[in-house]
Amino acid sequence: MKGASKHVIVAGGGVAGMEAAGSLAEMGYRVTLIEKGQDPGGHLLQWHALFPDRRPAEEVRGYLRKRLNHENISVITSTVVEKIRHHGHDVIVNLSGGTEERADAVIVATGFDLFDAHRKEEYGYGIYDNVITAAELEEMFSMGKVAKADGTLPSRVGFVHCVGSRDEKVSNNHCSKVCCVTAVKQAIEVRKMLPACEVFCFYMDMRMYGPYYEELYRESQEVHNINYIRGKVSEASVNISNRLVIKVEDTLAGRPLKMEVDLMVLMVGMEMSKQGAGLAVASGLETGVNRFLETGDHHYGNNVSRMKGVFYAGTCTAPMNITDTISHARAAVTETVRYLNGR
Amino acid sequence: MSVRQANRFGFGINQSRQINYDTSDRKVRDYVTLREPSFRLCFACGGCSATCTAGEHISFNLRRMITLIRRGEIDLLRDEVTRCMLCGKCMLVCPRGVNTRNVVAMTAEAIRKLDRNEL
Ligand SMILES: Cc1cc2nc3c(=O)[nH]c(=O)nc-3n(C[C@H](O)[C@H](O)[C@H](O)COP(=O)(O)OP(=O)(O)OC[C@H]3O[C@@H](n4cnc5c(N)ncnc54)[C@H](O)[C@@H]3O)c2cc1C
Ligand code: SF4
Ligand code: SF4
Ligand code: SF4
Description:
The structure holds two protein chains of two kinds. Chain A is α/β, with parallel strands linked by helices.
């Protein structure tokens, strides 16, 4: 087969890296997938059920694991790709531990980091026990129990949108795209687990951009009685009865509002990953004002870097959901193959 | 609302409640925007108005005020703008980096000028 002798390194084994590796292997290329963590999977390993249809995340993990299980793929875990450079026709990557790997092309799929909620001090994450992140709520779903820190059940839960996104104060002007629909999905799950619990989402805009997202939002009102309050939460505190108090303006009523809740869930956004940023700096790969990897063209070169033989897949370029990440990874493979065939 | 109450807000009971964008006066908006360009950045999240100590007790709402300035509905602002204590708390929360305190100061200045026919 034509591609058989050609070797592609995929840096990062999340959804994007696994799909890219699988597609390339299927076409006959030799692939080395290098993943920093102990196992491939990336953030998907942390999710319990997925929007928009609330299917078990395990189904998608299973699909991707199968994709990786191919004789053309070798997987190296617990290893960081530290630098990418050119040497003649080759692309050389430097790995943690001081080793090097040679390839004909590289796909960077280093993903995102969750926004560190400590940075929004006014929300009291790390100070108040019952302030948690969306990722921690997923963990609770996986354990099968949503509870307060003392083990008792919450009777009111508040979701705070846009934590670390659309906020100049933390240098993130971008929208993380997936957190609105994640909040809707999680709100429904809380109501299903705890039918007596009231659920509120505090949002600035409801960004239901994907297929079946708006429908999920509608269902959340029609079937699950989720309440929506339009306003950016300005702060949270704890009162004498040890309940969290949320301060917000109900902008549609035009009046300040305060509300006691038992559990406050911060919808932390996506940021360029630290490992990805380190790789970009070391390799001279350009990043944009939002600090994600800058692609060759925003419309028709969205998988192309400005370094020959280096391509991008997934959320290292911008926030996106799993569906778009998989499509983006397949497109990166197309660009890579085009490059290898033309060389 | 009684006629007397209505008059206090600067409009008669029979007057339309509609914002007539073609006849309303946006000189104040232009004055504020020129002197405080960050005024343009507000996306009406209500962070400032949630934080504002003044707004908890009296009818004062910076988020709403900004929208009214943009629409040219100045009559409603005359009283309100004087209620800000210029403490600057709102500036600490604004996710768009609006210099809210200066917006209030410039609005007050613009209205003073407007009333003296200097705008
Ligand atoms: C709270 C939350 C809930 C979500 N829920 C859903 C959902 O229900 N449905 C949905 O469609 N989407 C969901 N998403 C989006 C989904 O998580 C992403 O689309 C997906 O994880 C992106 O995959 P990725 O491969 O681009 O990045 P990642 O998942 O971040 O994977 C990147 C991988 O690269 C590795 N890596 C990074 N740098 C290096 C390096 N230098 N060397 C080696 N390895 C490296 C990392 O360890 C990681 O394993 C959610 C997102 C969030 C924030
Ligand atoms: S998707 Fe929603 S919650 Fe997330 S940053 Fe965008 S507007 Fe905010
Ligand atoms: S500066 Fe004015 S608007 Fe801002 S918080 Fe203080 S009183 Fe409220
Ligand atoms: S906090 Fe800033 S963006 Fe939000 S309503 Fe106030 S001025 Fe506008």
